[in-house]
Every structure is written in C-alpha cells, then in structure tokens.
Protein: Amino acid ABC transporter ATP-binding protein, PAAT family
Amino acid sequence: MSPILSARGISRCFGSVTALAPSDLDVAPGEVVVLIGPSGSGKSTLLRCLNLLSPPDSGDIHFRAQCITERGVNLNQVRRSIGMVFQQFNLYPHMTALDNVTLALRRVHRMSRENARARGMAALEEVGLVEHHDTHPGKLSGGQQQRVGIARALALEPDIMLFDEPTSALDPELVGEVLSVMRRLRDRKMTMVIVTHEMGFARDVADRVVFMNEGAIIEQGSPEALFTTPSQPRTREFLSRLM
Ligand code: ADP
Ligand code: MG
Structure:
C-alpha cells in the first residue's frame, strides 16, 4: 500500500542544535506508528515537522499525492488534514467545550455555526463528552480536557492524527480514559503517529514502533521485535532503563 504520508530527509536545527538529523518516515493508511525515545531525542520536532507546525529545514514531505513542503502550500489545509494533539491541552478557558472544538471550523474554515455545531457534537460524541458540550474547561478533569483536545482535532475530519505525549500532563488515574479514546480511533482505522512513554499502550496499539535518539531514527519495527529483540545497543539501553 502506498504511504499516505512520506517524509524524505527532513531535518531541523535550532541554532547549533540538530533537533532532527535528516530522517525518513513513511506512514501507511490506517497505520499506527508509535515514536519512543529519551527526552530531547527529537520526537516532538519530528511530529511538528510532519504537519508543518515547524517546517523542516531540508527534505520533502508528501501527503497523499501532494508535496506539502513546496512553497505556496495552503498551511491551514495541511493542518486540517494532519491533526495534532498536544501534551498541554491549550483550551480556551472562557469558552465551552463545544466552542473550543468548533472554533477553527468557524474562524479558519468559515463553516456556518449550524454545520460547525453538528461536526463539533459528533466529535464530542466520539470522545464520550456530548453531555459536557456546554461545560467550560475549568470544570472538567484533565482527562476530559484532553478528550476535548482530541475532539477539537477530530472535528476537522483529519486523515492523520499526530499525538505528542497526550497523557504526560495527566494524573495517573486519568491516563486510561484518554488511551481508550485513542484505542477506539485505532479500531476505526484512524491513521496515527503517537509519541508516548506508555509502553504497555505502545505494545498494544502500535503497528510499528520507531525509536529515536539524539535527533535520529535509530531503529524501527513491530512492537514484538522492537521491545523483545531490539537490534541496536542504544535501543536496548533505553528499554532496559524503563524496566
Ligand atoms: P523530544 O520531544 O524527544 O523530547 P524535542 O524534539 O523537543 O525532543 O527536542 C530535540 C532537541 O531540540 C532538544 O535538544 C531540544 O532542546 C531542541 N529544541 C526543540 N525545540 C526547540 C526550540 N524551539 N528552540 C531551541 N531548541 C529546541
Ligand atoms: Mg517532546
């Protein structure tokens, strides 16, 4: 199957720091790719390059048939198709859950209030929060706020979802509800690239696990292969520190 997203030689520096060395990544339709690696290894940089939140310094990214790293590409359209969920939920505190979810549809994509509401309610339904559509973020738990964050991305009907440590800011007892929303997305064949430290979850949902270290993709493979018989010393070392 040809990839839905294909990055070739993408890199990113910050001053003298190479956050991401030239890297290749393909994601097939419906595939779940989990990125793991130590803090500072370039996982967030890679994700942010993939949807051009922080465009790569070099290399090309193709999304479907289109080269999205060419000049003149519609960034709003790219970010609508390649959704992103962050560690910090970044919800507007003065707006209801539904208004947070529909804001981009209304403001950026100029959708009518009625259509945006229908989309927003469907997205809240997917994350199990319809009954809280009128609630402000401050009245929701962290897990519920992150589910609103997921609904906000889903409302744009993306073809791919990128998750950057979606449960790292949560109290342990709230992690499960967010992971189960992500499992449901997997079950309905959403294409996803997920950065997480939840290794049990990674093992369970990933079609492929990618290990990064010092801005480079060191090794990748099925969860069984990568977690049980990693081939690279740095992967073994990283995994052994988690056990
Ligand atoms: P990870 O997500 O794996 O923890 P990051 O992609 O956030 O890693 O960071 C990779 C490297 O790039 C780190 O050394 C980090 O300090 C650096 N870096 C990331 N973003 C920036 C930025 N906006 N400005 C300067 N340095 C950055
Ligand atoms: Mg990060």
Summary: DSSP finds nine helices and ten strands in the chain. The first helix runs from residue 43 to 50.
